[in-house]
Design brief:
The complex is a heterotetramer, with two copies of chain A (74 residues) and two copies of chain C (168 residues). Chain A is an alpha+beta fold and 74 residues long. Chain A has two helices and five strands, in the order βαβαβββ. In chain A, strand 3 and strand 4 form a beta hairpin. With 168 residues, chain C is α+β, with helices and mostly antiparallel strands. Chain C contains three helices and eight strands; from the N terminus they run E-H-E-E-E-H-E-E-H-E-E.
Amino acid sequence: MRVHLFGILAEKAGSDVVELEGAATDELRAEFRRRFPNTKGLMFAMAVDRKVVNGNQPLNGNEEVAMLPPFAGG
Amino acid sequence: MRVHLFGILAEKAGSDVVELEGAATDELRAEFRRRFPNTKGLMFAMAVDRKVVNGNQPLNGNEEVAMLPPFAGG
Amino acid sequence: MSEKKHKVRDIFIEGPIDPQFVADSLAKHATRMDIGAHELFLGQVRADGVAGADDRPSATTVEAIAFTAYRDMALERMTDIREEAFALWPSMICLHVHHSLGRIPAGQLCFFVFASSPHRKAAREAVAWVVDRIKADLPIFGKEIFADETHTWKTNRSVDPSGRPDHQ
Amino acid sequence: MSEKKHKVRDIFIEGPIDPQFVADSLAKHATRMDIGAHELFLGQVRADGVAGADDRPSATTVEAIAFTAYRDMALERMTDIREEAFALWPSMICLHVHHSLGRIPAGQLCFFVFASSPHRKAAREAVAWVVDRIKADLPIFGKEIFADETHTWKTNRSVDPSGRPDHQ
């Protein structure tokens, strides 16, 4: 599924969107780490349908998924 | 001595300065009340040399004395 | 804008505070590369409604406030407040205070406190403290003029109205 | 200026916030006769100095911050924050929020939160709370660009950097 990337994650991945496969957010995380080892040590949160995920959230593949590095607004 | 009046006190006295005699701030207060009975019930502070007086302060007659109704700045 | 010297500065301006003055004041700080946060407070004259009274046939509203001040004392107290504020918030970079005198119609601005600092905490706390201190300590008087030409004298709430209550 | 309806409104503007925009925003409130207090917070980009590092030969300073955002999520979170703010301070009359996107040079304004209320307490508390919530909850990202062309990614202090720390 399509995953949106922001900030330093988009920079490291060289794109602001990646295709990743997984049935839950933890699987997408793991796949992202494998595909982009240059993101090692970078913390990020995940959002599903524009809400931050706590824990591991199952996915049906139709959600809007994003990986969010630390916020810096203001 | 010259006493400066502000706000409602100046309005009630019809002037922003009055001549009052007294050797301390309490005497000026009492004299002011006698001269202007229409200020009955109005609270005010006194300032000597631009500082608010706490209690009764003796005067030598050369001070800058003022009667200050409640503040309304801001 | 270099503000740390505590000479007596005039805070009073005749008439309302123009929003343009606020913009100009803000714009002047674009050269200060160490500022990260600006906190501004502005007081605006409210058209409060008041009930009828002995000297007022029916309910009316505030049309304007006419401000007067004991200028020399107000500026001395303001100098003290400024010094205390810079002592309490040493990281504060600048502090600007302006207060109107004269007749300020409802809807117009009459009071402006503006602090800047590297981070938001100092500017935020300083503005709150300075606003409260000015309301409590500066000998400024306000005549509320009603639409029906009557008037009353404004008293700041939650501020001890005089150094020494006089019940004689 | 009628603000109580909580439709999603765009807070983002491209480029720095002009001080003139602040003046115009203030001036629009002169028709609201129930407003007595305006509280404004503005964030300005600091030219912070940074030490040399692996990818940076020597010390340098921040020349600009380039802001990006996850727009749709940021606007949804902002709508929640606005609703909560009006619930917490029911006397608040209006609340305006603006945040810059794109490259904002040091010394320029990038963030503006503006609340108005009859008395100062509500506007003061609401602005402090809304500023803190925006910094913590809105997915906005900032690339600090240094004078020597290197860059780093800004992280808000005292804000949990992610919903779920990832140490894999």
